[in-house]
Design brief:
Two copies of one chain form a homodimer. Chain A is of the alpha/beta class. Chain A has 16 helices and 14 strands. Chain A is globular and about 90 Å long.
Chain lengths: 487, 487
């Protein structure tokens, strides 16, 4: 790997070439693009705009300074000085042969010449090329700037040093190289996609299901599973303590059943069962089934909570369900309001084995949102252009909170006049143990000017009603205090 | 739907029956289990333990009070008073017939009698049953308490009111009913699973890939995609502005290629292409392709960040990559330390169109973790039984922060002696604009006793070095202040 250079040549723009360009640029590589399409620059810049808003968001540190992007007039210019050349031209073998010949003619001997093809095997691409040893397939998945999988497929004629350097560079730009040890039509992943696609065509043709119903069958079920454990780890967990060998061997008879149009099946011989069971052991026997179940569940919960943020797919189901079980607003009287009650998810805990500090604020912020709903600063109010912004927060931690604890959030309005709303929160376990207190100053704002202003009369009068009911309550312990002040 | 009763009968325990029991119980239903297996109670309680730690974690409100679980000696007793009966006995038609006969003999006329079967069509289950109209298939996906998908398959003999009530009840317990309009072997989702499984068997048998390589091909690529958009929405986005019809019609020739062992394929006629394109329009034409790309990317980032929390699958790739690009520790001198730099992800923004308040604490908490690494309170130190806990936090918000902004976190040690570590943070945009300040009191603790204690000598001397370097710096604006205090 030519570390010093860090130049990648992108031959063929479009969505795939653009995704490659973005992946390299955002990891600090310079990128030289050659594409005869006059729209190439526009297309790549659109992909790049998407990549800039999402790839860096995966990391808790800034990515390296972005590399330099240039568009050049020829393949030879693009390949100049490049440690990596990525070919993503149309899927026609004659075009690929011509382009690869131009690339290898211009490339240095150590340059990796990778093709994005899904349709051709590397040996097919190498036919007639004088420098075939530099060529291999590196098949990505759209969006290339986000999805980690990359199938690295050398042929027997590909140089070993080229294949090894390819995996190392791909890892260095955040990808997950999967070495395909024997070349095969469509490599590995696309064979599965093709099988699903063909089965899907039958279901649509036979009027069994629509595209939307098929997509629903995927996103609400096995898609979620497969984002975190594959086919075999999923079956391993399903098989439970009885073991993979036992579970798989039950499937023999079903292979003869018309459960798919794919009826050309191998016999599930003892030998094949043994192969599967021992490969599965090598893959996952370091974890118990119970451990895998919990990892699976934590992953599913985390992913579904992420989807929920976007009110999408499984996350939409959760949000809709939650709306039906949300408790009524509490009655306003001379005592703190019970604003929320919830269980602490695993994803909120940290390396100290307790809920991470940031989630205390998130917890009472949910309570605060419920308070805002109560006073009429709700979705419609926000849509009409006004809202409350938090301008100050103070948290005093009193006891640790662990995954699975159910906590209650109570709130007392300390100040509620004009644009100001100051609230004091208690986060308690159900037995009354105090975990933390929070003090929050909210300011009412106009969302167009982003400046402070008084709330609408109805909201103002709702705030006043709570503030008056709470006016006689004692000042909570910790209110108004600064960090490190003696208690 | 018999709202008043809310009793579910679970006939057949095991992983699937247990998952159903958990789904109903945690949604406030009473559950009556009949299973001749002497291990049934243990098996269900194990599933229930998993469900209790994960299902409530999906929601930001507490679920209803858990229902009552009872184990009874007969099917008739279990069915007593039940609005829902779920049959999950072994996949043999003679056993199913016998059990369903016992269920329908004891059930009230409005009771839904649902089977978890994947192997039989509802018309097969109904054969010879006097109350066939109450029977339908409701096929869940493991883990039943988390995955929303449920295939609802009536036969022509199933009563319409039963099928409708079934969907309504399933929705009320947080599931996503997918009505399968024409019964077919294996319903819909399992036909895809079966196709993938059969293709996988070939790859293993032919020595192309191991179980682990196949699972990697799934979890790092199309699994992530399919957790949030299915096959057809994914192709719609890939097709871009040229449209679904154009994109799909390109696939015709590939159907003749050996890209899977599934070689019995329908012709991709104009009629079939039109059907797919118009169904896809009905499904998603309310969004532009650009909009779908951004939704997709936000979903992928959110899910991968969730996986990262568990250092699992795609999340593990990100964490490993981040470790290679993490900047070095800053030099200690008489100025605030630059502790972190990062971009604001979309998932951190809220309905006000800016970063949600809780993430300010998360942001400087990451800075604080870097400071702890610097002073030697790192992974090894935590593993050896000591750490710092945050006991107090104060945030003053100064300016809004938006998705895509890159922020810099700086820190000044205000106090660093004995078990106390007090730090002041600035969160700034790259141009120096102040977004927020944070003040944090950390206390050094023994992780075994969970009580305060002095740090190890090396950590203590590292803290002292920074505290001394920062001793001459002016007290930052806002330090020591309480909420609502005049500036």
């Amino acid at each position: 790997m030519s570390q010093a250079k860090k130049i990648a040549a992108i031959i063929g723009g479009g969505v795939i070439g653009g995704g490659w360009a973005a992946r390299f640029l955002l990891n600090g590589w310079d990128v030289q693009v050659a594409d005869p399409d006059p729209q190439a620059e526009r297309k790549i810049s659109e992909v790049l705009a998407n990549a800039r808003r999402s790839l860096p968001a995966l990391y808790d540190v800034a990515l390296p300074a972005e590399g330099r992007l240039s568009f050049v007039g020829s393949i030879a210019e693009a390949v100049q000085g490049a440690a990596w050349v990525q070919e993503s031209v149309p899927e026609r073998l004659d075009i690929k042969h011509k382009v690869l010949a131009d690339i290898t003619a211009a490339a240095e001997p150590g340059t990796i010449v990778a093709s994005s093809t899904s349709g051709f095997k590397p040996s097919e691409l190498q036919e007639g090329n004088a420098k075939a040893g530099q060529i291999l397939v590196c098949h990505p998945f759209n969006p290339v700037y986000l999805l980690p999988l990359i199938e690295v497929v050398p042929s027997p004629a590909t140089r070993t040093d080229i294949a090894e350097a390819a995996s190392s560079i791909l890892t260095s730009v955040g990808m997950k190289p999967l070495l395909v040890r024997k070349e095969i039509d469509a490599h590995i992943a696309d064979r599965f996609l093709e099988a699903v696609w063909r089965e899907g065509l039958w279901l649509i043709k036979d009027g069994i299901a629509t595209t939307e119903e098929i997509d629903d069958a995927i996103i609400y079920g096995f898609g979620l599973r497969w984002a975190q454990m594959g086919l075999f780890d999923t079956y391993r967990v399903a098989g439970g303590e009885a073991g993979m060998r036992h579970f798989i061997s039950q499937f023999g008879p079903a292979l003869a059943w018309p459960w798919t149009k794919l009826m050309d099946v191998p016999d599930l011989t003892d030998e094949l069962i043994d192969t599967i069971a021992s490969q599965s052991d090598a893959q996952s026997a370091h974890m118990s089934i119970r451990e895998m179940e919990r990892i699976r569940d934590d992953n599913l919960v985390g992913m579904m909570r992420a989807l929920r943020k976007n009110n999408w797919a499984a996350g939409q189901v959760i949000a809709a369900h939650e709306a039906t079980i949300k408790p009524d607003f509490p009655t306003i009287k001379a005592e703190p309001l019970v604003l929320a009650r919830r269980q602490i998810p695993q994803s909120w805990t940290d390396y100290n084995g307790h809920m991470n500090e940031a989630h205390y604020l998130e917890l009472y912020s949910v309570g605060g949102d419920n308070l805002l709903q109560m006073i009429g600063s709700d979705e419609a109010y926000v849509a009409a252009g006004k809202s409350y912004f938090s301008v100050e927060n103070h948290i005093i931690h009193a006891a640790e909170t662990k995954q699975g604890d159910t906590v209650v959030i109570k709130g007392q309005v300390l100040e509620g006049q004009g644009k100001k709303l100051r609230v004091f929160y208690w986060i308690e376990l159900e037995d009354g143990t105090l975990c933390a207190t929070g003090e929050q100053m909210l300011i009412h704002v106009d969302l167009n000017t982003r400046r402070a202003c008084n709330p609408d009369p109805e909201v103002m009068s709702n705030v006043r009603a709570i503030a008056e009911a709470h006016a006689g309550l004692p000042l909570p312990d910790g209110a108004g205090r600064g960090v490190g002040t003696k208690r």
